Amino acid sequence: MARAATTTDAFNAVAEPRRRQILDLLAGGERPVNDLVAALGLAQPQVSKHLRVLREVGLVEVRDDGRQRLYRLNATPLRPIYDWVRAYERAWSARFDRLDMVLEELKQEERNDERDGETDDR
Amino acid sequence: MARAATTTDAFNAVAEPRRRQILDLLAGGERPVNDLVAALGLAQPQVSKHLRVLREVGLVEVRDDGRQRLYRLNATPLRPIYDWVRAYERAWSARFDRLDMVLEELKQEERNDERDGETDDR
DNA sequence: TTGACACATGCCCATATGGGAATACAATCG
DNA sequence: CGATTGTATTCCCATATGGGCATGTGTCAA
User: Fold this and answer.
1) CATH 2.130.10.10 describes domain A10-74
2) pLDDT tens digits, residue range B49-66?
3) Where in chain B are the domains?
4) CB of residue B81 closer than 7 A to nucleic acid strand C?
5) Which of A11, B1, B60, B98 has its CA 20 to 30 A from that of B32?
């Protein structure tokens, strides 16, 4: 199997920076494609393609207006992402854990130094 | 250009469900690879590969313990994701917007019905 | 009708994925 | 030492990406 399609879910769709930018722009309100093209400095076809992906995961919705197509944001599919990351909020703000980790690392380094001289992973 | 590497940033790394699972498991504490292999029901090499990606974006850290390698979570790189999605929190909880959208859609459908009979996009 | 404008799609290509399978490496055991 | 256990790396492959570019489609104007 290859990598999951970008249209699989919001996680995949939003992994692409340009698509995040598009959503950010749409957060300001409904916009026609050309507006986005101008704002993104991307070629029109690519923008349309990104919009397609976003549409397929439900992150944007379209509305016809004359010869324009007005895209609007629908943030709902972002919820799973939010819910998932939010659970980690404590983890990165927890400096206590950090302390434990530092202590363990020191202990580990000592042990390595006893055996050999410097391992330097990564 | 092809799709951005999974190791580009946390957004890309975390787009893969298995990697999210791994992080979820590590949230419970440090674990050796085989533990994860068992928990995930995946082959060991694939787990190691996923761990590599996570390591490269800084989401996990390793520590040698005898012949095992203990992986631990480092949630910090998740922050950008959190910060980005959080901005949309209001968007999906805002039912007012919904109302506007529904109204506009109705208006639009009427207009379409006048012109032709049913377009049914998507 | 023709033409211009706003978008969407199709095609080509380099790239990297994630899984499977085999193998390399490291540390410990006997 | 050789054997075994715990992980990492390599190779193979089907798949889909995202950008560039050309073209199709729909709408409005003259």
Assistant:
1) no
2) 999 999 999 999 999 999
3) 10-74, 79-121
4) no
5) A11
